[in-house]
Amino acid sequence: MISENTINSKQSNFNRAIQTIVATLGVIFGISGIGHGFFETLQGNTATNGYVIYAIGEANRIWLHGNEPAFTIIPNFLLTGIAAILVGVAVIIWSAGFMSKKNASLVFLSLFFLLFLVGGGIGQVIFVMIGWAMSTRIRKPLNWWRKVLPAGVRRFLSKRWRPFLIVSSLLILYTLQIAIFGFVPGISNPDSISMVMVSTLGIGLLFLILAFISGCAHDIEKGGVING
After folding, report:
1. In terms of C-beta density within 10 A (0-12 exposed, 13-18 middle, 19 or more buried), how is residue 228 classed?
2. Which residues on neighbouring strands pair with residue 15, listed in sequence order?
3. Which listed site, 159, 166, 175, 187, has its alpha carbon 20 to 30 Å from 207?
4. Helix count (H) and strand count (E) of the chain?
5. Residue 66 has pLDDT above 80, yes or no
6. What confidence tier does 14 reach under pLDDT thresholds 50, 70, 90?
7. Would you say 95 and 23 are in contact if contact means Cβ atoms under 8 Å apart?
8. Please, which pLDDT band fits residue 102 given cuts at 50, 70 and 90?
């Protein structure tokens, strides 16, 4: 029988694998927000003429569909871009350094909501919502996952959260590259490139979900948060 002291010695104040996954996701989409902001600033001190904009203007567009849709409440491209860059930097700093803090998930969601409002991009919304949901488990016991994941499955998955996270991150980054540069080896048709972009993003999302489930298994196996 496992003693109470043994359990307490394994207990942590937060679930480290989940924290790492959320931090990685936050950094990636913080960089994406900065990228949107950079191209918005290139459009200069001009009116946005609406809430829904293209971060990449025609003068800087590299391929046909490389326009990077965004939403902004600031009616000026230059100011929108500066705001997106600043908030993107704040997202990266918070994600990388403070996700183990109390109420970190609320700040995480608030920063990304602000990034959305100032031109940081639209496409990352579903990823951010998953990341936020994951972040609420960083300092919480994983009792539900302990029930639904049998011990054998947990042991199998617990060793695979890093590979899943790496694959997901690379696919998302590759998708972000396609969105801007339209570079897909061997393919030049814009519609085909768009299909590849959507496909890689979808597969990246799948691997992110697998990373999250595997991260839960890892944190349970390593004795993450046991008591709330």
Report:
1. exposed
2. none
3. 187
4. 9, 2
5. yes
6. confident
7. yes
8. confident
Intra-chain end-to-end CA distance of the chain, in Å: 23
Can you tell me which residue has the tokens 């965004």?
70
Between helix 16-42 and helix 104-117 the angle, nearest 10°, is 20
Annotate 45-98 with DSSP letters as a single string: S-B--SSEEESS-GGG--STT---EEEBSSSBHHHHHHHHHHHHHHHHHHHHH-
Decide: residue 84, CB within 10 A, 0-12 exposed, 13-18 middle, 19+ buried: buried
Please identify which residue in the block is written with the tokens 């951010």. 128
Give the relative orientation of helices 77-97 and 104-117 as an angle to the nearest 10 degrees.
160
pTM: 0.90
